[in-house]
Design a protein that fits this description.
The complex is a heterodimer. Chain A is mainly β. Chain A has one domain: Immunoglobulin-like, CATH 2.60.40. Chain A contains one helix and eleven strands, in the order βββββββαββββ. In chain A, the strands form two sheets. Chain A has a nine-stranded mixed sheet with strand order 5-4-10-11-1-2-9-6-7. Chain A has a two-stranded antiparallel sheet with strand order 3-8. In chain A, β4 and β5 form a beta hairpin. The radius of gyration of chain A is 15 Å and the shape is globular. Chain B folds into two domains: 266 residues, TIM Barrel (Alpha-Beta Barrel), CATH 3.20.20.150; 57 residues, no CATH class. The two termini of chain B are 15 Å apart. By secondary structure, chain B is α/β, with parallel strands linked by helices. In chain B, α5 links the parallel β3 and β4. Chain B is built from 14 helices and eight strands. Helix content of chain B is 45%, strand content 13%. Classes of the chains: A mainly beta, B alpha/beta. Chains A and B meet through β3 and β10 of A and α1 of B.
Chain lengths: 133, 331
């Protein structure tokens, strides 16, 4: 198995459906905590189908935001040991679903060009068991 | 005198997967006998960093005292690209580093690790405060940089000009390596890189030129010869993580070394680190009369997963090796 920092989803792959919404956990694919504003991309697919960005939220340390709202959260930090909860509104798969995530984390202290920080792309797809809450 | 300890970054696998909290990982360090020095990456080990909750500083200092451990170095990061629309200004960077220095002071760390991201302007501004607070700022010299590389020479010039006792360097042994770690080569083999390309990779890594030139030449030839693209991309970190700077270049900054990162990746059956010339490095530190800690920094976790190695055991092997070398020289 490669470095743990190559993964944004971990076993057990269990998702929950409640209130017309699918929820599952993601992890920071890095070795240190990053500012919430550095979550630069969070593309989700369900059984291979892309999910519209406005249907996706991410809850970090008790605060639920859209990806666009994360951009402004420069004072909040996603602690490296905490999972975040991704919610997909309107998705109610039964039994099993293949969840794909493409997370782009901006590594804010490693510059790869005069104005460009290192982008860390983490792409993973796993078969989740769905539990109806 | 050389003193020993570790950075908790060595246990990234155990930490990131939540196997330990701060209290239990400190207890584990004491139990494994791999202190007494304890270094932390602020943004890795401390929840809410760089803010501290009331009472945390006392709790932390008591925790270390209970286990007879010593806080050595707080590794800082300046998140210059915190915002998506612009980089931090010099004022904001200064404020960020100052906050992290304050945490170091409150938690009993005498040294703050800085990185190249701390610009000359920022370092010059915070140096007087570091002096007031009794802190040393050590810029980490880590692969692909070294004491003589183009990015570091201006920092040395700044240090000469400002001449503050608070400004120093932290050599990281990754800058001056002798072999590519075998564990990393195994992951490239697993990614589909044939043995002939492993051989040419080793030759390219040991060849002349800047790291990215060496990689570029090897990658171009290897792709043309039909090796899988993913494995070629994965091999880039060989050139960025493992430096080929001359080992004697550490002498250039001898009087500014405030702390040391004892980088290591793996050990053979005799307890030696094949990729890093520990006898030579310890010899240099003794030669210059280095008086401070070597923080063991096992970084095999950059290619080994949580179930593939025991980070604490690897740290212990590095410390045994250092003791063996020091003992042999004394004896």
């Amino acid at each position: 198995m490669p470095s743990i920092t190559q993964f944004c989803m971990r076993e057990p792959f269990e998702a929950r459906v409640a209130d017309d919404t699918l929820a599952f956990q993601v992890f920071e694919p890095w070795y240190r905590s990053l500012p919430v504003s550095c979550l630069a991309g969070l593309d989700v697919t369900l059984d291979g189908e892309p999910v519209a960005a406005d249907a996706v939220t991410v809850e970090i340390d008790g605060v639920e935001r859209t990806l666009a709202e994360c951009d402004a959260a420069v004072d909040d930090v996603w602690f490296i040991q905490d999972p975040a909860t991704v919610r997909v509104k309107g998705a109610t798969p039964a039994d099993q679903v293949r969840i794909g995530v493409h997370m782009n984390s901006r590594i804010p202290y490693i510059m790869v060009g005069p104005e460009v920080a290192l982008p860390k792309h983490t792409v993973q797809e796993e078969l989740f068991t769905v539990v109806n809450a | 005198m050389i003193k020993q300890g570790l950075t908790l970054y060595s246990a990234t696998n155990e930490w990131v997967t939540g196997k330990y909290n701060l209290e239990s990982i400190v207890a584990k360090v004491a139990e494994a006998g791999i202190g007494p020095g304890v270094e932390v990456v602020g943004y890795q080990s401390l929840r809410g960093f760089p803010e501290l909750t009331p009472g945390f500083a006392d709790w932390w200092q008591n925790l270390l005292a209970r286990y007879e451990l010593v806080p050595t170095c707080l590794a800082s990061n300046i998140d210059v690209a915190l915002r998506s629309d612009r980089l931090l200004t010099d004022d904001e960077m200064t404020e960020s580093l100052t906050r992290q220095m304050k945490v170091a002071k409150e938690l009993g760390f005498g040294i703050v690790r800085t990185q190249i991201g701390a610009s000359p302007v920022v370092l010059e501004r915070v140096a007087p405060l570091a002096e007031d607070w009794g802190l040393k700022l050590g810029m980490e010299l880590h692969a692909p940089e070294g004491p003589r590389t183009a990015a570091i020479l201006p920092v040395r010039d700044l240090y000469e000009r400002v001449d503050s006792p608070a400004l120093g360097f932290i050599p990281d042994f990754s800058a001056t390596m002798r072999e590519i770690p075998t564990g990393l080569l195994d992951t490239l083999r697993a990614a589909g890189l044939e043995e002939r390309f492993i051989v040419s990779l080793d030759e390219a890594w040991k060849g002349e030129g800047a790291p990215f030139e060496r990689y570029g030449r090897w990658a171009g030839a290897t792709e043309a010869a039909g090796a899988p693209k993913k494995a070629i991309q994965a091999a880039m970190l060989v050139f960025t993580m493992f430096g080929r700077e001359p080992i004697e270049s550490w002498y250039d900054i001898a009087d500014r070394i405030v702390h040391v990162h004892g980088k290591c990746y793996g050990f053979d059956e005799a307890g030696d680190e094949p990729s890093i010339d520990y006898p030579a490095l310890i010899g240099i530190l003794e030669d210059i009369g280095y008086d401070g800690y070597i923080s063991t920094e096992w970084e095999g976790h950059s290619y080994l997963g949580p179930d593939e190695a025991d980070s604490f055991a690897e740290v212990a092997k590095q410390q045994a090796l250092v003791r063996r070398i020091v003992g042999a020289r004394v004896g």
